């Protein structure tokens, strides 16, 4: 990916008002088609790129497409058009020359010159040799049909709506996902699809949620909180998950990238050329890496950096607090999964959360992810604290009164707690887990570790979801 730099002189293109060129509709076909559709309207400061609106010039809203009566040409800015397609635009003031590049095509135009260089060949810009690139009100003008076709695309002028529609190839590049797969993705991502709830949460972490065209929330996420945070939730189609994807739904949505986890769906998408990128956040450090990668993939690097800064700062605060707890006094913790006799092995995220909160996971020596254990094993472990996740079917009362657990220290001392949930349970490998770590540290060592949970919760959801938690919800989460 690349960082876009806006220069003082905006580059603008000219389109013949009577231009009529066929524009193929983009529909779901047998394979993914990496094509961009760009629609600009005379007088409007915004354009639609693959269904989403963007400013034509992010710096100057006065820059709009206009019709120049003297030439009978529509003047249309080009810089952001090319860059949103993943291409590059370079302006050299001294030579008054502009270079446009997209995929394997390079176009060189010079102000006042009716000829241009296209992929090393000298050609006329227009059949009317009076038409040359020119500077009007500080903006360089070049013919849009010529520019589009020279870059491997097409252009259409619609007189009734006074719109110009471009179809351009997307600049693609190879990247390596978190599972080590080489993936070919658009250089500039506009339309985003997700096939896992974790990937969806990462999209929110970098502020790219408005670009979702397909999203997997999961039953655990599709609750009251997410409905308030993201009113579009029930309007965005789902397409299965990492184990089984609905390829037809994905193709119809025309995503620039499909964000998922490791699973059989990767082979499904590979077969039709969909750009699928796999994430993982189960291991230490992966959550931070995942957010950083998401920012780069979606072009939201600044938002990703802000979120990472908050996470890094807060996790250091937690480490400083629990660092004062002597190793000999660290409590033994049992985290329940969907039931009291289901837990997580040492290779799962919950183990690292317990460790970060200053505890010792009783199951950390095991492997295999989600595992079943016997009541006898829990007795042998004899945890000081039992944590029930928000999705554990057993309640605190069920555990306290379970006759098979009466000799467990956590049951005897009534130190059985339920991990909070808002968007998702705070024990999951998503950004909310830092709140879970903070909450757990306080539950383990209430006399030594103290946080203003109301303030921490408020700050987190404002940063990661641009949402202010209602007072009633805040009170419940802060207990």
From TrEMBL:
Domain Fe/B12 periplasmic-binding, chain residue ranges per copy: 191-448
A biological process from GO: cellular response to iron ion
Lineage: superkingdom: Bacteria
Coiled-coil regions listed: none
Pfam families hit by this protein: Cu_amine_oxidN1, Peripla_BP_2
UniProt xrefs under InterPro entries: ABC_Transporter_SBP, ABC_transptr_periplasmic_BD, Cu_amine_oxidase-like_N, Mao_N_sf
Protein name (record): Fe/B12 periplasmic-binding domain-containing protein
Organismal lineage: Bacteria, Pseudomonadati, Caldisericota/Cryosericota group, Candidatus Cryosericota, Candidatus Cryosericia
């Amino acid at each position: 990916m690349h960082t876009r730099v806006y220069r003082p002189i905006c580059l603008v293109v000219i389109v013949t008002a009577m231009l009529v060129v066929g524009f193929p509709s983009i529909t779901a076909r047998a394979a993914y088609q990496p094509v961009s559709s760009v629609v600009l309207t005379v007088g409007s400061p915004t354009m639609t790129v693959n269904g989403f609106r963007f400013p034509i010039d992010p710096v100057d809203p006065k820059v709009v497409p206009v019709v120049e009566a003297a030439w009978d040409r529509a003047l249309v800015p080009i810089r952001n058009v090319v860059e949103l397609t993943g291409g590059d635009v370079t302006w050299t003031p001294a030579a008054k020359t502009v270079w446009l590049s997209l995929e394997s095509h390079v176009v060189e135009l010079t102000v006042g010159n009716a000829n241009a260089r296209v992929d090393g060949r000298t050609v006329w810009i227009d059949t009317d040799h009076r038409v040359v690139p020119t500077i009007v009100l500080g903006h360089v003008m070049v013919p849009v049909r010529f520019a589009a076709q020279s870059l491997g695309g097409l252009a259409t002028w619609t007189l009734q709506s006074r719109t110009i529609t471009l179809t351009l190839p997307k600049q693609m590049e190879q990247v390596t996902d978190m599972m080590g797969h080489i993936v070919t993705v658009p250089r500039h991502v506009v339309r985003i699809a997700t096939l896992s709830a974790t990937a969806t949460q990462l999209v929110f972490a970098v502020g790219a949620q408005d670009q979702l065209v397909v999203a997997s929330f999961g039953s655990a996420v599709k609750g009251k909180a997410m409905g308030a945070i993201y009113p579009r939730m029930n309007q965005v189609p789902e397409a299965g998950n990492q184990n089984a994807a609905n390829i037809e739904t994905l193709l119809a949505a025309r995503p620039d990238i499909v964000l998922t986890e490791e699973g059989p769906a990767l082979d499904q998408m590979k077969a039709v050329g969909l750009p699928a990128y796999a994430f993982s956040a189960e291991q230490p450090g992966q959550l931070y890496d995942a957010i950083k990668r998401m920012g780069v993939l979606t072009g939201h690097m600044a938002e990703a950096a802000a979120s990472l800064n908050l996470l890094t700062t807060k996790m250091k605060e937690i480490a400083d607090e629990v660092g004062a707890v002597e190793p000999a006094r660290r409590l033994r913790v049992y985290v329940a999964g969907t039931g009291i006799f289901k837990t997580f092995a040492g290779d799962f995220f919950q183990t690292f959360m317990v460790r970060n909160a200053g505890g010792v996971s009783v199951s950390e020596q095991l492997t295999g992810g989600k595992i079943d254990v016997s009541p006898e094993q829990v007795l042998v472990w004899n945890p000081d604290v039992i944590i029930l996740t928000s999705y554990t079917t057993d309640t605190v009362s069920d555990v306290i009164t379970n006759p098979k657990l009466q000799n467990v220290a956590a049951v005897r001392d009534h130190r059985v707690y339920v991990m909070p949930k808002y968007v998702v349970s705070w024990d999951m490998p998503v950004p909310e887990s830092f709140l879970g770590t903070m909450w757990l540290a306080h539950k383990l060592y209430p006399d030594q570790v103290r946080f203003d949970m109301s303030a921490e919760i408020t700050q987190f959801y404002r940063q990661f979801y641009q949402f202010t938690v209602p007072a009633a919800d805040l009170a419940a989460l802060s207990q």
